[in-house]
Design brief:
- This protein is 39% helix and 25% strand.
- By secondary structure, the chain is an alpha/beta fold.
- The chain folds into two domains: 82 residues, no CATH class; 115 residues, 2-Layer Sandwich (Zincin-like).
- Strand 7 and strand 8 form a beta hairpin.
Length: 259
Amino acid sequence: MPNLFRLLAPKPRTIARDMVAIVLPDGRRVDVERVRHPRARRLKLSVDERGARLTLPVRASLIAGERFLHQHRDWLSAQLDHHATGAITPLTRGETDSLPLRGAELPLRWNEGRFNRLVDDQPGMLFSTSARASDATLRRTLRDYYEAQARSDIARWLPKYMPSLPRPPSRIVLKRMSSQWGSLSPDGVMALDLSLVLARPSAFEYVLVHELCHLLRADHSPAFWREVETRFPAWRDERSYFHAEGRRLKGALRGLLNP
């Protein structure tokens, strides 16, 4: 029989967010995003390329959250230092001298031109910009370049796998994803994380194969993984690569494209 209290209890569906400041042991003052989440079951402190986050269950008090945060100041300081080590500064005209692409760091040259464009310039890239181009325009140009490179890779790999699949994806969308690397919707639209183009090519190809196999199996059952194994036997190596490098890749793209 259903628990009547659970059925009658209000179920908050909104996520409340604000910021709380804390002084770390070394004297640094940092802002921590405080999130009250309806699905949270315990207090949780996390750090990623976006900064620090304190997650609270709906019934947890703010005082309990601040006490928890204070108790974990040493851990928070160490994690922030770790993420700062691999941080990438935003794209800066004339100053950014390299860009990540396909698992490598490629040299970047700048010159002035009538149009804003980023092109291959072996062994690196050439960024031509007009004198009046805004920072936002430069970031859009970089994003467009990365998307064009990603689509070029997908177009090269896709024909190899299509003969064994029931149908192609209805559309492929490249976007920035906070945690996932890819997804496939019921109508066949495949979404891939744009930061995949910064990864080594074999890792990007694995994610593509993974999502293509969802055209055969919508779950992650043993049968699904057999389909992946048949098409990409080294998938375990690429999954380990993402466990080790995933946050750095997402952080690199965020650092370059965020204002």
